[in-house]
Amino acid sequence: PMTINEARRLVAVTLAAYPSMQEKDLSLTAAVWQKMLGDLTMENLEKAVLKIIATKKFSPSISEIRSEAVSFAAPLHPLPEEAWAEVMAQLDPYRTPHYSDPLIHRAVKAIGYLNLCMSERIGVERAHFLQIYGAFLQTDTNRRQNEAVMEITGAHAPELMRLLAGIGRPL
Q1: Rounded distance, CA 78 to CA 81, Å?
Q2: Cβ atoms within 10 A of the Cβ of 127, count?
Q3: H/E element holding 7?
Q4: What is the pLDDT of residues 113-156, one digit of tens each?
């Protein structure tokens, strides 16, 4: 988990890059960042903040930082075109395919393995596969995001609410 000093350092870097924020008391920001970003690696968070500073006009939200930090992590699943290439490499009606990822297996099963093997319009099947696999990827991403938020806020919800209740009052 991120320490409060690491959160303060991230806030300080952001503050230095966005002068309009410099006259505000950001101790509450650091505390909230610590709780809401604490499940991510500091390495990826630092990269994310630097990327946002280099590419965005306004100070980042927690969701922007999370999104960028996650983009620096290794992908959990093959990209859709990579998954399709894996399917194509194993198309053989006489063999059982073994895919590297369960989402590929689910997408193939949804279309029908033999349908893919015997298809005379593989371009249409490709489009179906990419659509189905993409939906499965999005569902998996949403599930993981929900789990991460529940893990973060579940343990820290009372503390976060106390911090947020203090907005507008002197600290």
Answers
A1: 8
A2: 12
A3: helix 4-17
A4: 999 999 999 999 999 999 999 999 999 989 988 887 787 777 66
Cut 0.70: pTM above it: no
Which residue carries 């630097």 as its tokens? 50
Q: Token pair for residue 78?
A: 């093959």
20 has pLDDT over 90: no
Q: Which of 76, 124, 81 is closest to 101 using CA atoms? A: 76
Instruction: Report how far residue 42's alpha carbon sits from residue 134's, in angstroms, rounded to the nearest whole number.
Output: 29
Asked if 137 and 103 count as a contact pair (C-beta separation under 8 A), the reply is yes
What is the rounded CA–CA span in Å between residue 58 and residue 79? 30
All residues at 6 or more sequence positions from 66 whose CB lies less than 8 Å from its CB, including other chains: 36, 37, 40, 48
DSSP class per residue in 85-153? HHHHHT--TTS----SSHHHHHHHHHH-HHHHHH-S-HHHHHHHHHHHHHHHHHHHHHHHHHHHHHHHH
d(CA 38, CA 95): 46
